[in-house]
Specification:
Blueprint lengths: L2 H24 L6 H14 L2 E3 L14 H10 L4 E2 L7 E4 L7 H14 L2 H5 L4 E4 L10 H9 L1 E5 L13 E3 L21 E6 L9 H5 L5 E4 L6 H5 L1 E7 L7 H6 L3 E5 L20 E3 L4 H10 L3 H15 L13 H11 L13
Parallel strand pairs: 1-2, 1-3, 3-4, 4-5, 5-6, 7-8, 7-9, 9-10, 10-11
């Protein structure tokens, strides 16, 4: 066989492999489907977190927020160890809405009383902060900000999130809709999109443009949405607005359309989910007309794939009073598991 024929055969073989690989990747909502579940099983049996003794004011019976459910689930889980020497990470039970100055004071106390913070300058420590903490010249808060893993609500305050180490909690709908975790097979879309008008940023004008558009239906109450979601192709979420129902939308087969004018770096489970395969991202510069053009430009084959993958991924966004396999709590733990390798900084004296 001539060299040119061999080269052509090799080219077509590589092209076929690339096509198959691309198709497999596109058929899953996960970033690393071949490693996710084996690593998840390993996490269940080996991952250990040491929890500092929480202050009395930390105790709370409120379980209608994701940070409360996460903390309650963690403290009652087999991930907690009483032996700090076998711990992969250290959980700082700070109250999630403490100001930066108070956080710095508590870090200073830990540094003086126990040796674990100083071994890594906080790089193997985890803490909760609702909207994230800002920068400060104080040594303690600076190490907390730059080194420790911050867990926040989604979306976070601009500048308060460091993508390579911080994570956000999947949102929790305090009044979840009773929707199946699989899209209806015979779903017929009546509307191009559904949107909740409550809780939107004040600067958002997209609702005013869409409110009289017959292609869209606008809900105004948290209880609205079940029927509308089931009859809409897309569910619109304005970044910075109300996002607690995104899991229900995905479970109902309503593909999320996230409206934002900049790249979003704090999406929940960004280490797990391939968000570009389950959601559409669109800016506001084109207004309602531009939004409709983008949504109508999504082909039926791609749309059906996104709908199915979104329903599959929605189970990982669900919070349970008693954690279930692969739910929101366990996926947050998996992201922490991925961050268990830390840099051991050389200790030095500070003036």
């Amino acid at each position: 066989m001539a060299v040119s024929q061999l080269s052509l055969l090799l080219f077509h073989s590589l092209l076929a492999i690339a096509t198959i690989t691309s198709a497999v990747a596109a058929a899953t909502p996960y970033l690393s489907p071949t490693t996710l579940f084996p690593n998840y099983q390993k996490m269940l049996t080996t991952f250990k977190i040491y929890t500092y003794t929480p202050p009395s004011q930390f105790t709370s019976t409120v379980t209608t927020q994701p940070e409360s459910l996460f903390t309650t689930s963690l403290l009652a889980s087999p991930f907690v160890t009483q032996d700090p020497e076998e711990a992969h990470l250290f959980f700082l039970p700070f109250h999630p809405d403490l100001p930066t100055r108070s956080l710095a004071r508590q870090v200073r106390e830990l540094r003086q009383k126990l040796p674990y913070w100083n071994r890594t300058l906080g790089a193997d420590h985890v803490f909760l902060s609702l909207s994230g903490i800002d920068y400060s010249s104080d040594r303690n808060s600076l190490e907390l900000k730059k080194n420790s893993v911050q867990i926040s609500r989604f979306p976070t305050t601009s500048g308060h999130f460091i993508p390579h180490k911080d994570i956000t909690l999947p949102p929790l709908n305090p009044s979840p809709l009773a929707v199946p975790h699989a899209p209806p097979a015979n779903k017929t879309a009546t509307y191009l999109g559904y949107m909740r008008a409550d809780g939107l940023p004040e600067e958002s004008s997209i609702v005013n443009e869409l409110i009289n558009d017959p292609d869209f239906v606008i809900g105004s109450q948290p209880s609205d949405g079940l029927g509308e979601m089931g009859n809409s192709k897309f569910c619109l979420f304005v970044y910075g607005g109300e996002v607690t129902w995104i899991g229900e939308a995905m479970a109902a087969g309503c593909v999320p359309a996230v409206v934002a004018d900049r790249p979003i770096q704090d999406l929940p489970l960004m280490d797990v989910l391939r968000w570009t395969e389950i959601a559409v991202f669109v800016g506001t510069r084109g207004g309602a007309r531009g939004l409709k053009e983008v949504l109508r430009g999504v082909g039926e084959e791609r749309y059906e794939r996104m709908k199915g993958l979104g329903a599959e991924a929605s189970r990982h966004l669900a919070w349970n009073a008693a954690p279930q396999p692969h739910d929101a709590f366990h996926m947050v733990m998996y992201q922490l598991w991925l961050r268990r390798h830390t840099i051991r900084y050389t200790r030095r004296e500070w003036v």
